[in-house]
Every structure is written in structure tokens, then in C-alpha cells.
TrEMBL record:
Compartments reported by the entry: Cytoplasm, Cell cortex; Cytoplasm, Cytoskeleton, Microtubule organizing center, Centrosome; Cytoplasm, Cytoskeleton, Stress fiber; Cytoplasm, Myofibril
GO terms under cellular component: cell cortex; centrosome; dynactin complex; myofibril; stress fiber
UniProt keyword list: Acetylation, Coiled coil, Cytoplasm, Cytoskeleton, Isopeptide bond, Phosphoprotein, Ubl conjugation
Subunit structure of this chain's protein: Subunit of dynactin, a multiprotein complex part of a tripartite complex with dynein and a adapter, such as BICDL1, BICD2 or HOOK3. The dynactin complex is built around ACTR1A/ACTB filament and consists of an actin-related filament composed of a shoulder domain, a pointed end and a barbed end. Its length is defined by its flexible shoulder domain. The soulder is composed of 2 DCTN1 subunits, 4 DCTN2 and 2 DCTN3. The 4 DCNT2 (via N-terminus) bind the ACTR1A filament and act as molecular rulers to determine the length. The pointed end is important for binding dynein-dynactin cargo adapters.
Principal location: cytoplasm
Lineage per the UniProt record: Eukaryota, Metazoa, Ecdysozoa, Arthropoda, Hexapoda
Name of this chain's protein: Dynactin subunit 4
Residues making up the signal peptide according to the UniProt record: none
Family statement: Belongs to the dynactin subunit 4 family.
Span list, region Disordered: 112-131
Keyword Cytoplasm attributed: yes
Superkingdom to which the source organism belongs: Eukaryota
Comp. bias (Basic and acidic residues): 118-131
Species the sequence originates in: Diabrotica virgifera virgifera (western corn rootworm)
């Protein structure tokens, strides 16, 4: 909180000092309720509550630490007592360690000084004869359960065990934040951890989430074998560019043949690249150090195609028309005045739209030979216009547009019986 005061005439300007306090918007709790003073900094500096049993707990902790150290030293001593495989020099000459100590003038049973020290035992707990009396109004005062702490709340603070809510104190808790992730190939930072999860920023904007339209199931009619039903999907455009989406039929048999040919081409290209990298070593004199470091951290990447294992048991009636998704606009999410996009949609395909979202209606038919309680899976190919703005920013060119195809598989639910 900050307080400002207008300076009077002739007085110097007073700098505003901001004070911060903790406040929860969910339960309306604040640090002022339990008497925690306001702090001048946001992070850290909050005072800790004094524990009356701090000295006793510290004595117990020190005792157990000393016991652990003594046990480790005893184990090391027992290891040294074990006789080795080879005879020592003193045993071969007839001079023992005890005789050597006597010649030097040391006692024969000399041990390490650390082994002699034993942990100091704290004073045992004593039972008190005088116990605090119960308050006089314990049986007459009405109980308000909203002001009494629960068992879990008391166990979270075992040193104080507060009985009322007004004596609760903040508990130290580890934050759940994102970890630092690096790309396994180029070692660039992919995500950076922050204290506030909302402020986590991805370093590389190359995830499919930022470029491929999002598809979600809204509603689906009861699925019956061999009968047509209606499916409504929601498409969302995550990019800052307008895109056009159309549907194509999914042909898995042809895809398997194309996949086998691609696998052969990929293996041949990998072998060819490995031979080229061996035959053409880098010349240190012809390239600057910046390019050398870049080339060493950017090896040749070959993406192998993955085989599709999903089995489709439902046919989709592919619509002949396409629809347009406007670019993403964060401000439009909070604007209820209406959309300004004048788009002529096919009413048989587009049910409703708002900003960069569109609800699409499809007709699907599960296979007629499916038994009841079978998971129904349908699939289609989504073709959208992808605008590559990343290479355009690097090379200072206009963004290039491509027709990108994505295979979409949807698990619609289990098959039900006839009406």
C-alpha cells in the first residue's frame, strides 16, 4: 500500500514510500490480521514467528546430528581394524604398533580424539505437577465452528497448534514452477522458470500449439452402429494471421505405402549425410569463431516419419465447402459488442462463430458391425493455410504461406444400443 501527502508551500517534496502486505482474494485473509508488519519489499523480509520451544528443538537436533557423526566414525574405525591380505612392514620386522607407541612415549591404547567425544544428551523432559486451568466460560460460551481450526490446520503448524483461526500464520510452501528446459539438439532455452506461473515465457515459438488450429469436441449425439449422428467441433486459430480450413478424406492404406517410401528415403539421406560429414571436415582458417560455434551446436537433423497405429471404425461425411478463421485477438475475448468480421459462411457447415473460434457441424456414421461399448474413433485430414512469419523476420522478407495438412483422430466415446 502507498500513501501520498500533498506538500505544503515552502516544504520539500516527500518521496512516496510503498508498503506491501499479504492478501488472499479467495479467503479474504491478510497478514495484518495476525499482526505481521508491512514490508517495504515484495520478496522476502517477512518476520518469522518466535517459537517458545526453539531451544529445546535445537538441542534435540544437535544431539541426533552428533549421534550420526559418531556412528560414521565408528564404522570407519571398524573398517581399519580388519586385517588386510598383505603382511605389514612392522609385523615382518617384529615391531608392533603398541611397541612403537611405547618407544615414542605414547600410551598403547591411544585412539583418535574425535572418537572419544560422545554427544551431549539433552535434559530429559519432566512432567509438570501444575497444569493450566480451563477457562471459566468453556462450558457456557457458544461455539462458532468457523472460528475453530481443523485438525489438518493444526498439524501444519505443530510448534504452535493454533486452536482459533485468528492465530493462524503463513506456512512455508514450495512453489510449483516450470523448470528450465533446453533443446536436446541446439541447447537453446525452451522455457524459463518464473515465480509467477502466468509470466512464464517460452523462448522458442516453434511448438505446434502456436501454429496449428486447435480442435475440440463440443457435443456428439448418441453413437449407434450403422446410424448417422451429428458431431460439433470447435476450431480455434492461435496465430496472428487469417487461415482457411478445409476437410479431406483420410486414406490410411495409401499413407502406409507413402510412409514406407519415406522411411527408405530417410535412411538413405542419413547415410549420405554421415558420409559427407566425415569426408568434409571443418576448416578452422576459413570460418570465423562465431560460425564455428554455431555449426558445432547445430548438427544435421533428420525427422523420421512415425507410423500411425490408430484404428478408425467410423466414417466421416467430408464437407465440400471450407471456412475462414480470423486471426487471434486477445482484446476480442473481453469485447461483447460483437464481431466485425463480415464472413459469408455455409450455414450447413458453420453453426456459430466468435472472434477466432468457429463451431463446425459434421455428420459421422459408426461401422455397422461394431459391438456395444466399443470405443468409436473417427479421422479426417485438416488442411489449413500456414503463414511462416519466423523466416520472414530473420531474412527480412514477406511471410510465406503454405497449405499444411494434419491428420486428426477423435475418440468420440463408446457405442450404445439401439433406441
Amino acid at each position: 500500500m502507498a500513501s501520498t501527502k500533498a506538500p505544503a508551500e515552502g516544504e520539500e517534496k516527500v518521496t512516496t514510500k510503498k508498503m506491501y502486505y499479504l492478501y488472499c482474494q479467495f479467503c479474504r485473509w491478510s497478514s495484518r490480521d495476525v499482526g505481521i508488519p508491512d514490508q517495504s519489499t515484495v520478496t522476502g523480509g517477512w518476520p518469522e514467528r518466535e517459537n517458545v520451544h526453539a531451544n529445546r528443538l535445537q538441542e534435540l537436533v544437535d544431539m541426533y546430528k552428533a549421534i550420526v557423526v559418531a556412528q560414521k566414525q565408528q564404522q570407519e574405525k571398524d573398517k581399519k581394524k580388519q586385517r588386510g591380505k598383505y603382511v605389514s612392514y612392522t609385523d615382518r620386522t617384529g615391531v608392533t604398533a603398541a611397541a612403537l607407541r611405547k618407544r615414542i612415549g605414547l600410551p598403547a591404547d591411544l585412539t583418535h580424539p574425535l572418537l572419544k567425544s560422545k554427544p551431549k544428551e539433552p535434559e530429559p523432559a519432566k512432567a509438570e505437577t501444575e497444569v493450566e486451568k480451563l477457562p471459566a466460560d468453556i462450558f457456557t460460551k457458544p461455539i462458532n465452528l468457523m472460528e475453530i481450526t481443523t485438525v489438518s490446520q493444526r498439524l501444519l503448524q505443530p510448534e504452535a497448534q493454533p486452536t482459533t483461526v485468528d492465530t493462524l500464520f503463513p506456512v512455508h510452501k514450495q512453489l510449483s514452477i516450470k523448470r528450465t528446459l533446453r533443446c536436446r539438439t541446439c541447447e537453446h532455452n525452451v522455457s524459463k522458470p518464473e515465480y509467477n506461473p502466468c509470466s512464464v515465457k517460452f523462448k522458442i515459438q516453434l511448438f505446434a500449439y502456436y501454429h496449428i488450429p486447435e480442435v475440440r469436441i463440443v457435443t456428439v449425439e448418441p453413437l449407434r452402429a450403422g446410424k448417422e449422428c451429428e458431431l460439433i467441433l470447435k476450431f480455434t486459430n492461435p496465430t496472428q494471421h487469417q487461415t482457411t480450413i478445409s476437410f479431406l478424406e483420410l486414406k490410411l492404406d495409401e499413407e502406409e505405402e507413402v510412409l514406407e517410401n519415406k522411411m527408405v528415403q530417410v535412411t538413405e539421406s542419413v547415410e549420405h549425410l554421415s558420409v559427407q560429414e566425415k569426408q568434409q571436415p571443418l576448416s578452422l582458417s576459413s570460418q570465423p569463431s562465431s560460425l564455428l560455434s554455431l555449426s558445432s551446436r547445430s548438427p544435421s537433423i533428420v525427422i523420421k516419419p512415425r507410423q500411425i497405429t490408430e484404428q478408425v471404425n467410423c466414417s466421416v461425411e467430408i464437407p465440400t465447402s471450407s471456412f475462414i478463421l480470423p486471426p487471434r485477438d486477445d482484446a476480442a475475448e473481453y469485447d461483447d459488442s460483437g464481431d466485425t468480421h463480415n464472413i459469408q459462411d455455409d450455414t450447413k457447415l458453420v453453426k456459430w462463430r466468435k472472434s477466432n473460434k468457429a463451431f463446425i457441424k459434421l455428420r459421422i456414421t459408426p461401422n455397422g458391425d461394431l459391438p456395444i461399448n466399443t470405443e468409436v474413433v473417427c479421422g479426417f485430414v485438416m488442411q489449413h493455410i500456414y503463414t511462416n512469419a519466423i523466416t520472414g523476420q530473420l531474412e527480412k522478407k514477406e511471410p510465406q504461406k503454405y497449405d499444411h495438412r494434419v491428420k486428426v483422430f477423435l475418440t468420440l466415446g463408446k457405442l450404445v444400443g439401439s433406441e
